[in-house]
Design a protein that fits this description.
Length: about 150
Amino acid sequence: MSGVDAPDVLAAYDAVRSDKDETTWLLLSYAGAAGDKLVLTGTGRGGLAELASHLDDAQAQYGYVRVEYANDTESKRVKFVLVVWIGEGTKVMRKARVSIESGNVKRVLGHHSISVDARDRGDLDEKDIVARLRRAGGADYNGGRG
């Protein structure tokens, strides 16, 4: 897979992970209808909701997003989520290849707590994602209430 380790992608990845940068997400899309070349098609500061608004229903795309949440009044957690998006209108052959090609994306964007396979924007509800992050984190100081 070409493009996933391009300098602009790696710089965007570092920006999302940095506590000193306001960037909270990045989006990778296929450069064309055929082939496996990925390009950086967006970054932003608006978190998961903003990333979800940039997803294309006719494409398979990969998002990486910083999610911050509080466990209690004394602590704040920062976790990272990899989103594997397969829009409703994605062509059948592209859908089939995503399961193979997503491994390379996961390797390059390796620091994430959970990976979310999303087919609908409802799969990216922030409350549900935070509940999954809490469960994945092991320590749940919220009494299992998500």
